[in-house]
Write a structure and sequence with these properties.
Length: 354
């Protein structure tokens, strides 16, 4: 059966890895801990997890642990009996009871008070809850999925999160990459949001000028998909005409990407050409594409190169080609190469320092 990822837009290699993990995990009842920076779309991923599970026809019940005062959160989660506290004029089921047979999503679980963490641990271990003011336990059949933008291992080390609960939640870790590591997904999402907001506001469609596209692809988007969505809505309101120009972008974005787009690619063509291109002849523009020829030891001997020099030459040539194709935008170049942006940056630093 095809994976239902409706609502999640992207074609990058890093997001494809997430989808592969999702396909394996969704049909099980294993507890999942979703991590990722704020604004990456963790709730969308958890909803996809539920939609692809055998619990899909049962309730999906989210609760933001950081948005509800801690003195009320226990009642929200587990319910309460009449008279359990002031204003408890009737008994009320909690989110776990409402989700029976389905999925409970504990968003921002890193914000949860330690006293409540103990009770969540009991639900995971015993599959039962006790209402506030109640005198007995009630069995619940729920799958628990939690999410956080915090480093829970650090929170455990600082004594702010229970170690036993962390290991109970972290059965299946699922990390959602930040937008800056998703390459071409930035422009794919930008186009989607821009079309949506223009249609919603009954205005003619907007397109991004090439220079604006290049800058937006290079920007780090610290607020991730949420920041990009909000920015596209702003453009749909403020931009005159039908094209988003470079001058329509705020100074914050232009200043942040100036260093990235000023990348100076080393001139290495003489070395690269003598080391590789003769072994794999390039076709003329009007001829059929050349067939790749695997290099052999004779290539190294003929050019006086060792294996490391040869591999470095190949790597540098491919990096330069990817950067040229991407207009020096590192995250796009990394996507072309099939590596992480941080890996590309390290390779550039290493060769520039050499």
């Amino acid at each position: 059966m095809a994976l239902d990822t409706s609502g999640i837009i992207g074609q990058s290699a890093s997001l494809s890895d997430v989808f592969k993990m999702l396909a394996k995990v969704a049909p099980t009842d294993s507890t999942v801990l979703v991590t990722g920076e704020s604004g990456t779309g963790k709730e969308l991923l958890v909803r996809a997890l539920h939609a692809n599970s055998h619990r899909a026809a049962r309730p999906f019940v989210p609760i933001n642990c950081g948005a509800i005062p801690k003195e009320l959160l226990e009642s929200e989660l587990f319910g309460h009996e009449k008279g359990a506290f002031t204003h408890a004029i009737r008994s009320r089921p909690g989110r776990f009871e409402l989700a029976d047979g389905g999925t409970v999503f504990l968003d921002e679980i890193g914000e949860m008070d330690l006293s409540l963490q103990v009770k969540i641990l009991r639900v995971l271990q015993e599959k039962e809850i006790e209402r506030v003011g109640g005198s007995g336990c009630k069995k619940v059949d729920v799958r628990i999925v939690a999410a956080t933008n915090r480093d829970l291992e650090s929170e455990v080390a600082c004594g702010r999160f229970r170690e036993d609960l962390y290991y109970r939640l972290n059965v299946i870790p699922l990390h959602l990459p930040p937008l800056r590591e998703r390459g071409g997904d930035v422009l794919l999402l930008a186009g989607h949001f821009l079309e949506h907001f223009c249609r919603k506001k009954l205005r003619s469609p907007l397109t991004l000028a090439p220079a604006a596209r290049r800058v937006m692809a290079a920007y780090a988007w610290p607020g991730n998909v949420r920041e990009l969505e909000n920015f596209m809505e702003r453009l749909s309101v403020l931009v005159d005409g039908d094209i988003v120009k470079l001058s329509d972008l705020p100074p914050k974005i232009l200043e942040q990407v100036s260093d990235d787009l000023a990348l100076d690619i080393d001139e290495r063509q003489d070395t690269l050409g003598s080391g590789i291109s003769e072994q794999a002849p390039m076709a003329d523009e009007d001829s059929a594409p050349a067939v790749f020829v695997w290099p052999d030891l004779a290539v190294l001997e003929a050019r006086g190169m060792n294996l490391k020099d040869f591999l470095d030459t190949v790597e540098n040539r491919l990096i330069d080609e990817a950067l040229n194709k991407a207009g020096s935008v590192k995250n796009l170049a990394a996507e072309f190469l099939g590596i992480k942006r941080t890996t590309l940056i390290e390779k550039l630093k290493k060769r520039n320092s050499g």
